[in-house]
Write a structure and sequence with these properties.
Layout: E1 2-11, E2 15-25, E3 30-34, H1 41-48, E4 57-66, E5 69-70, H2 76-83, E6 85-88, H3 100-106, H4 116-126, H5 128-132, H6 143-155, E7 161-165, H7 173-188, E8 192-196, H8 200-206, E9 209-214, E10 217-223, H9 224-229, H10 231-236, H11 248-257
Parallel strand pairs: 3-8, 3-9, 6-7, 7-8
Antiparallel strand pairs: 1-2, 1-4, 4-5, 9-10
Bound molecules: adenosine-5'-triphosphate and magnesium ion.
Length: 261
């Protein structure tokens, strides 16, 4: 469905961040990408979604294909509209001064069909909290509700492939659980998902396959189930190297002390 071939990305012509990444996303799967801070996860999603030039970055080598057709160099709207690939950025971009419903309307900017209202209702079915506050300004929504809105806005573009950048960031465990349950439901409707997550355990639990990225390179790949049980992944990303299941923050600190082998 999506194929990334030997992708190299630099920022400002000199800072090399992706050093030859190749990966594939099969139709209908949830592909999980994990990696430490600064590994290049967000850069990868920006490059795929056609947004790398907004950040003064360039794809200097490699290719990105959706169903066999190269999308390299296309702009983000084209990629979304013509190739069905939509990216939900890590900072939950919603319009604070618009209501929830107006945000969903704004996300439908590229659509001319008459099903927008029905699709908004479908978003409210997935996220009842949004339905209940549809006429409230998004700026008053909680972090979790804003994340749901950002995903809801992406759904209004009718994606075939959805790229999610750390959707659980800063959310309480119960909200994260709910969010991942809904991501799985969306996937069950046939949307292929690329899920970048620091919350590696929760992500791998709903994931099909996963890749571990370090310093702009893939260092490990496998079935999600196998990665959960992989010794290095457990040690570095699940924080269970010393005692079982420490907090993620501890895992991060631990990672800094020890380098990936
Ligand atoms: N616009 C930019 N200009 C220069 N360097 C950048 C830019 N954006 C990111 N970088 C650098 O590229 C590297 C990878 O960043 P990226 O945001 O892709 O990592 P990440 O894996 O998403 O990290 P995190 O887990 O913190 O979100 C980092 O060293 C970062 O400082
Ligand atoms: Mg990131």
């Amino acid at each position: 469905m999506l194929a990334i071939e030997n992708l190299r990305v630099v920022y400002h012509d000199v800072i090399s961040v992706l050093n030859g990444i190749s990966l594939t996303v099969q139709e209908g799967e949830i592909l999980v990408i994990i990696g430490a801070n600064g590994a290049g996860k967000t850069t990868l999603l920006r490059a795929v979604a056609g947004m790398i030039d907004f950040y003064d970055g360039d794809i200097i080598e490699g290719d990105i294909k959706v169903e066999g057709t190269s999308i390299k160099g296309l702009d983000a709207t084209d990629i979304m509209k013509r190739h069905g690939l939509t990216y939900v950025m890590e900072d939950r971009p919603v319009f604070w001064y618009l209501t929830i419903e107006e945000n969903l309307g704004a996300a439908s900017f590229s659509r001319w069909d008459k099903k927008v209202k029905a699709d908004m209702e479908a978003v409210y079915d997935y996220f009842p909290a949004l339905g209940a506050m549809r006429h409230k300004k998004a700026g008053y929504a909680s972090g979790g509700e804003q994340q749901m809105l950002a995903i809801g806005m992406a759904l209004m573009t009718k994606p075939k492939i959805l790229l999610l950048d750390e959707p659980s960031l800063g959310l309480a465990p119960l909200i994260t659980e709910e969010l991942f349950r809904i991501i799985k439901q969306l996937n069950d409707t046939g949307i292929s998902i690329v899920l970048v997550e620091q919350n590696a355990h929760a992500a791998l639990e709903i994931g099909t396959r996963g890749y571990v990225i370090e310093l702009g390179r893939i260092v490990l790949e496998g079935k999600a189930k196998d990665l959960i049980n992989n010794k290095d992944v457990r040690e570095f990303y699940l924080g269970s190297g010393e005692k079982e299941r420490k907090s993620y923050r501890d895992a991060k600190r631990y990672k800094r002390r020890k380098r990936w082998l």
